[in-house]
From TrEMBL:
Name of one Pfam family that matches: YlxR
Species annotation: Fictibacillus solisalsi
Limits of the YlxR domain: 9-83
Protein name (record): YlxR domain-containing protein
Amino acid sequence: MKTRKIPMRKCVACQEMKEKKQLIRIVRSPEGEVFVDPTGKKSGRGAYLCNQASCFALAKKKGSLNNQLKAQVPDEVFAELEKGV
């Protein structure tokens, strides 16, 4: 049997490459709304973060999510991420 290719993505905060399933996807929809995508399949521009509080804090401090999504990320998104951890 063939071995399946595992999709890899880079965390925007710590810049580590990890499996897509291990990361959390944040999406900016075509309408401009920014939200957490638990399924990883919603349409829009996506950015990935590790499932660690340190990465959430680093992304908020550096503004790397804002840069990647080309939109202002509301504080509610960061609150939802921290609540999920």
